[in-house]
Design brief:
This protein has 438 residues and is α/β, with parallel strands linked by helices. The protein has 2 domains: 366 residues, Alkaline Phosphatase, subunit A (3-Layer(aba) Sandwich); 58 residues, no CATH class. It has an 8-stranded mixed β-sheet. Strands 2-3 form a two-stranded antiparallel sheet. A hairpin with a 2-residue loop joins strand 15 and strand 16. It is globular. The two termini are 26 Å apart. The relative contact order is 0.23.
Length: 438
């Protein structure tokens, strides 16, 4: 089915989920220090890393086997092994569905981040949020369908290209909100020198000029999107301040997300704003943990000092992420909201230098919660080193197919004709992972 407007009326099959919130760990969060427990790394710590065959690395030679700096314990009724790097997420163990057999087609941050977001390593393709917006339409009249909350420290590699609409109608691109900024949405309000009457007259004249321009350029979605953006901006002048007003939240909720703690304040604020957006009808919210590859590190790309850099990033992410899952659950929203914890690839089980880890596109971990996923489940497996996938290799195509399935969409039928090709987010791949569906 290629027409989004048909899908707003009914889905391909009954949906279990209505909305998605994705937490993206930019820089490559290490699977072997978070959720992929490998006793062999502890047993062989400091020994030569020799998994057999040539070891392919991004920017280093293989160092010694490196055990995680964090302890591992089993949690929940599922007995899931999780490291002490995430002491708050462990309390959600029985709500999480893990995929331990993720693979990427690139070990470079930019292309790999594109792949996880759009299904392609090249720029110019629509993000998952844009596809969901195109396929399902909006559940509200006053807020965007696809909202992005970037890390307060800056953009991840590719910047706004990670939430582009690509060749889809431009109205489906992500709307960026900087929740920690005094002006969360740039240029939302006119300068004080412009009166409400003048502003209304200007908008009326602009609308008339745009309508005349559009009549002579039928089919140009860019102008349609621009007109829609002006109309949405007018609505956002009322709806956005209310949606982002955290003063209405209880002290207990603020404490749950860590809003008043400098360590968790930024990501916590983004997660709480995400919840408020979701309950007001936003279809897809993306929350970023990690910026670009600057120094000192401000993302998950821990080449030099894993304990220091992953420790810092996890301290800011862990409590708010767990809070979001618990808060959605307490409000009865987790059942029809997909929570997706994602990253572009993993990290090597051997050391880079003495204390870091290099990139690993051959095996990494992602997890889901809510929205029809089976809590306490694990799918696929890496080898004994957490180096390469050993069972059920999985790509982003399969994740996207599964999320769309739970949203009521057959990924093979959600297409858009572009350059003579019926494009879809799963390209020519993708299988629904039924083992982790409740």
């Amino acid at each position: 089915m290629a027409l989004a407007r048909l899908l707003t009326a009914e889905t391909h099959h009954p949906a279990k989920a209505k909305r998605v919130v994705q937490l993206f760990m930019s820089g490559a969060a290490s699977q072997c220090d978070t959720f992929d427990y490998k006793p062999l790394l502890i047993q062989r710590n400091g020994e030569k890393f020799d998994p057999g065959g040539k070891v392919e690395l991004f920017q280093s030679s293989p160092g010694a086997v490196m055990a995680s700096p964090w302890d591992w314990k089993q949690h929940g009724q599922s007995g899931k092994w999780i490291s002490s790097l995430t002491p708050h997420l462990v309390s959600c163990a029985d709500d999480l569905a893990f995929v331990h057999s993720m693979m990427s087609k690139s070990n470079v941050h930019g292309p790999a981040t594109f792949m996880q977001n759009t299904g392609f390593v090249l720029p110019g393709f629509p993000a998952m949020g844009a596809w969901v917006s195109y396929g399902l339409g909006s559940m509200n009249d006053n807020l965007p369908t696809f909202v992005v909350l970037p890390d307060a420290r800056g953009f991840a590699p590719n910047g706004a290209g990670n939430w582009t609409a690509g060749f889809l109608p431009a109205a489906h691109q992500g709307t960026m909100i900087r929740a920690s900024s005094p002006k969360p949405i740039y240029d939302l309000f006119p300068p004080k020198s412009i009166t409400p009457e003048t502003d209304a007259d200007t908008l009326r004249t602009l609308r008339q000029m745009n309508d005349e321009h559009l009549e002579s350029r039928a089919g140009d979605s860019r102008l349609e999107a621009r007109i829609a953006s002006y109309e949405m901006a007018a609505k956002l002048q009322i709806s956005a301040p209310e949606a982002m007003d955290l003063s209405k939240e209880s002290a207990a909720t603020r404490a749950l997300y860590g809003i008043d703690d400098p360590v968790t304040a930024d990501f916590g604020r983004n997660c709480l704003v995400a919840r408020r957006m979701l309950e007001r009808g936003v279809r897809f919210v993306q929350v970023w943990s990690g910026a670009d590859n600057g120094f000192p590190r401000r993302n998950w790309d821990s080449h030099e000092d894993l304990a220091k850099d992953h420790g810092m990033m996890a301290a800011g992410m862990d409590k708010p992420a767990a809070a979001l899952i618990k808060d959605l659950k307490s409000r009865g929203m987790l059942d029809d909201t997909i929570v997706h914890w994602a990253t572009e690839f993993g990290r090597m089980p051997c050391s880079q230098g003495n204390k870091g880890r290099d990139h690993n596109p051959f095996a990494f971990t992602t997890f889901f919660a809510g929205g029809g996923f089976k809590g306490g489940a694990s799918y696929g497996a890496s080898d004994e080193w957490s180096y390469k996938v050993a069972e059920k290799p999985t790509y982003c195509y399969d994740l996207h197919a599964t999320m769309l399935h739970l949203l009521g969409i057959d990924h093979k039928r959600l297409t858009y004709r572009h350059n003579g090709i019926d494009r879809r987010i799963t390209d020519v791949f993708g299988n629904v992972i039924r083992d982790i569906i409740a």
